[in-house]
């Protein structure tokens, strides 16, 4: 395994007597995009600033290619291998060209090279035609492209992005996320990407670190984090709306039957888990894994769990809808608007909620 | 009323006729205030930017000190410089009292806190992430300073104007340490005081018109520069 590009050990950051970051260990591998996700105020930007040598931690060490970083003063060698872009484009006065050239200029790159490299990067970001525009005349999307081009033009070893899409409108954002993801791979950049949007994190990340209350709650592939959350807090952050306390009733052939605690239902839920009978666990089911059927039996395929209940809530979310079914405990399901209309779902309508045993994630 | 009207007419005649006394006083004023403003700028801009960007123990104390400095009564500064430069003072041997240099020293002490204070406020009003952005793009401390000065240049222009404004109109301190010696240390403000006392209304009015015109000119140049950039 290759040496991590950068790493932190025993990092502690305190502010006004409160611990806002406590990370025993985190490695960033060369060439990966590691997304730092979490609620606002969880400490993700603080971690980014520590790795970017902007914030000095109260305790702990930062490593760069295996060596301890000392100082990390403005303009130092390591500092100059790291680049950063923020939620706000933070463009300087002047033209697009002057902005993008800044990182090259402070590194004393010859003017002829600067011109060439600026043009090349502006083309990659699709804003070459705006090269001589004043930054004040740019749209939000254009300004963010300039900011990102400015951050990568000098080919940093590590690119830190702090909520780079958070102030863009949804259409511009989705397009730019796709472009930036491919540009990062094309340039072979190692990237740390802070976002509070789980969809954005899923789209950009090779690995995800969920930050909760200043700590890394889980680190893993997007699939791991989204489908096998390590804690209830991570499960909640990644959009698992059904997080229920349960007790393992019995097990057979790799399948466990669980009883939801505190619910009025006697129905057992089947799940794939190594948990032993009698153990207290947390059951997670993502709402999009839950199918809703009318009471008339229909072919249900491989779904092992069928819970009868009554609709108690319907929320329209654009092209989809969130249905809450009372099956002895509240269970949320995400269905299409078409299904909602076909099944004529409304509060009080009896339904069957179904999901596969493999869709149930059990936190022991 | 006639005396005042007469004074204004005579004053305008002196200005149009480039009266020699007027020119000498104006040049002394420009030399002393200009030099003092330049020194205050060279000291105050870096200090103000540094105070605006840094975080360290004792920073708050320095900010309070700066704000106190902005409110320093000029006559107190005059007295202090006078005592320092007087024959029995620690710097008496330099023989600077009643010279333009003494006036420059007093004016620098008055103007520098002004420049620091307004610079500090301007730098702090910048988006704090802008500083992180500049550093993250690879700037050294010096390059950061240059970039911050460029980004905040309109506010810094105001800082220098505030310093200039504080001393071009100052009379107490320059009178005490300069002595208002005609042809040497007499400046617009001290001359106005003296000529008025001696009943030379016309020349006092002429000097006042020049002083006002000077203030207008400086602010006009700065306003034009600001409007061009917004």
Count of strand segments of chain B: 0
Oligomer: heterodimer
Spatial separation of the terminal alpha carbons of chain B: 46 Å
Secondary-structure element order of chain B, as H and E? HHHHHHHHHHH
Backbone shape of chain B: globular
| Helix residue percentage of chain A | 10-25%
Any guess at the CATH architecture of chain B? Answer: Orthogonal Bundle
CATH class of chain B, anyone?
Answer: Mainly Alpha
Structural class of chain A: alpha+beta
CATH topology heading of the largest domain in chain A: Rossmann fold
What kind of sheet is the major sheet of chain B?
none
The CATH architecture of the largest domain in chain A: 3-Layer(aba) Sandwich
The helix/strand class of chain B is: mainly alpha
Structure description:
- The complex is a heterodimer of chains A (364) and B (230).
- Chain A has 2 domains: 6-237, P-loop containing nucleotide triphosphate hydrolases (Rossmann fold), CATH 3.40.50; 242-363, Beta Barrel (OB fold (Dihydrolipoamide Acetyltransferase, E2P)), CATH 2.40.50.
- In chain A, 24% of the residues lie in helices and 36% in strands.
- In chain A, α2 (96-105) packs across α3 (111-124).
- Chain A has 364 residues and is an alpha+beta fold.
- With 230 residues, chain B is an all-alpha fold.
- Chain B has helices at residues 2-16, 20-53, 59-70, 74-85, 100-125, 128-136, 141-151, 153-168, 172-178, 188-197, 201-229.
- The longest helix of chain B has 34 residues, at 20-53.
- Chain B is globular and about 65 Å long.
- The termini of chain B are far apart.
- Chains A and B meet through β6 of A and α6 and α7 of B.
How would you briefly describe this protein structure?
The complex is a heterodimer of chains A (about 375) and B (about 230). Chain A has helices at about 45-50, 95-105, 110-125, 140-150, 170-185, 200-205, 220-225, 230-235, 335-340, and strands spanning about 5-15, 20-30, 35, 60-65, 65-70, 80-85, 160, 190-195, 205-210, 215-220, 240-250, 255-260, 270, 280-285, 290-295, 305-315, 320-325, 330-335, 350-355, 360-364.
